[in-house]
Amino acid sequence: MRKEGGLGLNDATLEVIAQIVHDIDVKDDKFQRPETSGFSAMISGIVALNSGDEQRIEEGARLLEATYAALSVATDSRKLKKEGE
Fold first, then answer.
1. Which DSSP symbol is given to 62?
2. Got the DSSP string for 2-54?
3. Which end of the chain is more exposed for a tag (fewer CB within 10 A), N or C?
């Protein structure tokens, strides 16, 4: 049984994204997700390409949406494999 997050959300994909963001922000490698270095590089690219906050927020939101979509597919695949075992 999974524990609900502080906002009452029970979403495995959001949990993964939160772990990635935690490791980038706190720099403690607590979760050691394989996606963290790539996600961090993408954020650095957004910062390098966009000088304004609005642009950075827009591009960052797009990156988070794409990451959520990609991780949702991976999470759903793992759920299906577990159920089929």
1. H
2. PPP-TTS---HHHHHHHHHHHHHHH---SS--TTHHHHHHHHHHHHHH--SHH
3. N
